[in-house]
Amino acid sequence: MLGHSLVPALRAAGMDVVAHGNSKGMDVAGDLTDAAVAADLVAASEPDVVVNLAALTNVDRCEEVPNEAYRINVKLVENLVSALEKRPGSHLVQISTDQVYEGNGPFGEDDVHVANTYAFSKYAGELAALRMPATVLRTNFFGHSQLEGRPSFSDWLEKTLRAGTEFTGFTDVLFSPLGLDSLVAMITRTIEARRPGIFNLGSHGGMSKADFALVLAGHLGLDAGAMKKGSVADMSLMAYRPRDMRMNVTRFEQAFSVTLPDLKDEIAAL
Ligand SMILES: NC(=O)c1ccc[n+]([C@@H]2O[C@H](COP(=O)([O-])OP(=O)(O)OC[C@H]3O[C@@H](n4cnc5c(N)ncnc54)[C@H](OP(=O)(O)O)[C@@H]3O)[C@@H](O)[C@H]2O)c1
Q1: Is the CB of 24 within 6 Å of ligand 1?
Q2: I need a surface site. Which of 138, 184, 192, 213 has the fewest CB within 10 A?
Q3: How far apart are the first and last CA of the chain?
Q4: Ligand 1 pocket, 31 CB below 6 A?
């Protein structure tokens, strides 16, 4: 999903991009959990920078098949790093997640508390990435997905609000995502800067998923009456969901000389 927004933006910024996909054909395809495939891809495309978006992102699936979560979210990163180590001067941008946090946010980068297998595997993937000069971006995002059949959280929410279908808005899950356009602009900046380290990349403010739905509905002029406020604890989900994933984004702002937006403004922009 993120790749379908990022790749056109990087090309528009004048970068020479080789877009890799696994089963859905891009410029090149291949299973990067196979070390030889990763090595061949890097050797053939000779990248200065790799942005790794490949992941097993289905949180419940990670809980169900932790070995797959390990292979895709950790081993795949190790394969890329091993291949890139043969290209001195190359840089890795590893996209990670706000799910590595839990407790009372907003969290600084050192406040890691993994509470499910997805978070564990993404955190291990970060450590694998940091074997080489890498920028780890812990993020979350919403916006218009450019990938058919893969709606974002806000795509799903808008569709549900328009349909008037009953749904539960979680009052006890707090997050601070960025809109896709802002995220893409910030990833572009990190590619140019090649500054190593771990950075939270989200918005200021943060709110519950229920409040996000109310604010979005307000901007769309839609009635949110079909939303029932509730707790994620009442859902029977395979994986535990962190209750608070809000991020303190000061480190990113200082390192990259930017001011990140407020979540309310990001929803308005959408
Ligand atoms: N979506 C969110 O809301 C969200 C929030 C926070 C962080 N993130 C992070 O942002 C990044 C991008 O997320 P996304 O939602 O855009 O991901 P996505 O739509 O689920 O795409 C993941 C990609 O990884 C590829 N992939 C999976 N296994 C692979 C393998 N063995 N070899 C090569 N490629 C493989 C998939 O290819 P196929 O589909 O062809 O298998 C797919 O193109 C991820 O690192 C994710 O953890 C996402």
Answers
A1: yes
A2: 192
A3: 17
A4: yes
